[in-house]
Amino acid sequence: MIEAPMLFFTTVDRSAPAPARPSVPQIPRSAESIDRALLDQPAEWACFPSAWHLAAWRAEAGERLAPCVDCLPEFQARMVRLHRCRHPEAVFVDEDGELVGRLPTPAGFSRYGSRSDVDPAASAFSVVLACRFLGVDGVVALLGISAPSLPHYRNGNRTLPPAKFLALQAAVRTAARFITRS
């Protein structure tokens, strides 16, 4: 019997019992296309070791979420001690058995940023629908926003405040019911 050589691309740490060993982090497939030169650049969020790490996280999580959603209390405490935490006011809540970070807002806790807990995609979608149902003038009058700023809300660059978002959602639902009954 001839044994074929085995190639190992990693070493296994056997010094600790299996449950105590940390898992090996996997590089997300979408991160393979991220420029490795970003490894030498600082990240916009100082809690990330490099701009590449932030770009890899964004590739998986999306552009709109705040990184605080994937933070942990121990990591936050370490970053606060090192003066690298952008949002030391972030709190951690249990959602379906998982501890997630949230940023305080006037309306509650948010995963999108400290201003609003309205999903930017839902906000943009509601604005687009409202413009079709009510017209630009109707949306401007209903929300009290300027017509020149409306494209920013429509393409998702700006997010409606929670109260205006709920009012717009109600108007869109009413318009949709009215149209479907006709």
Q: What does this molecule look like?
A:
The chain has 182 residues and is mostly helical. The protein folds into 2 domains: 41-110, no CATH class; 120-181. The protein has helices spanning 51-61, 73-81, 120-143, 150-154, 162-181, and strands spanning 91-95, 98-105, 108-110. The protein has a 3-stranded antiparallel β-sheet with strand order 1-2-3, with no helix packed on it. The longest helix is centred in the C-terminal third of the chain and has 24 residues, at 120-143. The chain starts with 50 loop residues before the first helix and ends with a helix. 16% of the residues are buried. Mean pLDDT is 77; it is low at 6-10 and 16-25.
Using the alpha-carbon principal axes, give the shape. Answer: elongated
The count of domains is: 2
Q: Count every helix, treating DSSP H or I runs of 4 or more residues as helices.
A: 5
Gyration radius, to the nearest Å? 23 Å
Note poorly predicted spans. 6-10, 16-25
State the total count of DSSP E strands.
3
Secondary-structure element pattern, one letter each: HHEEEHHH
What would you call the structural class?
Answer: mainly alpha
Arrangement of strands in the largest sheet: 1-2-3
What profile does the largest beta sheet have?
3 strands, antiparallel
Quaternary state reads single chain
Whole-number mean pLDDT: 77
Approximately what portion of the residues adopt beta-strand conformation? 5-15%
Distance between termini? 80 Å
Helix content: 25-40%
